[in-house]
Design a protein that fits this description.
DNA-binding; 30% strand; eight-stranded antiparallel sheet; 3-methyladenine DNA Glycosylase, Chain A
Length: 188
DNA sequence: CCTCTGATCTTCT
DNA sequence: GAAGATCAGAGGG
């Protein structure tokens, strides 16, 4: 599953010619039309969710709670609306700029440890919706490995903030690097 | 440590 | 008109 493959890879944002980058440490999978927690549940196809029906490697950015821009990666093929939400990264490049985007934060572990935080730190907004991560000059992912991670390096738990989704809220579709200090607060 | 709440606005009913 | 893939601060233990 792509949500696992993305862990440990490097997310790169180019802003004013400078690299802002971090290692992906936490993701959540949203599984298409069956998944009650996904925007595409039931085959819903609207102006917003249309992006989820794009080809794999496309970004899906939407505004959450009127405040936060959340970054997803579409993971399958055209018309298969599955995506992975990037929930946290461990900052490694351009950290000083990230702090400017998050003026109230004092330590690295609070910079990008949540989907809304990550969006703010990297200055991602809806202008970054529906970008091709393979060709985009401003947002892309660099491979840090090609082998799958060992199973004990990854912890899987239920997703966060989807209690309304019943059975789907109980499924272990949230993944993070075991023991990493930069995952979002509610971790196991 | 924990729980509660306001902020803020797009999207869909 | 209501809900929402969240965050940070306040208040209590």
């Amino acid at each position: 599953m792509v949500a696992r493959e993305l862990l440990g890879q490097r997310l790169v944002r180019i802003l004013n010619g400078q690299r802002l980058a971090g290692i992906i440490v936490e993701t959540e999978a949203y599984l298409g039309v069956e998944d009650r927690a996904a925007h595409s549940f039931g085959g819903r196809r609207t102006a917003r969710t249309e992006t989820m029906y794009c080809d794999g490697g496309t970004t899906y950015v939407y505004l959450n709670y009127g405040i936060h821009n959340l970054l997803n990666v579409v993971t399958e093929t055209v018309d298969a609306p599955t995506a992975v939400l990037l929930r946290a990264i461990e900052p490694v490049e351009g950290i000083d700029v990230m702090y400017k985007h998050r003026p109230k934060i004092r330590n690295d572990s609070g910079l990008c440890s949540g989907p809304g935080k990550l969006g703010a730190a990297l200055a991602i907004d809806r202008s970054h919706d529906r970008l091709d991560l393979v060709t985009s000059p401003v947002l892309f992912i660099e491979r840090t490995r090609t082998r799958p991670l060992a199973k004990n390096k990854i912890t899987a738990t239920p997703r966060i903030g989807v209690d309304y989704a019943g059975f789907w809220a109980t499924r272990p579709l949230r993944f993070h690097l075991t023991g990493n200090k930069h995952v979002s607060a509610r971790s196991v």
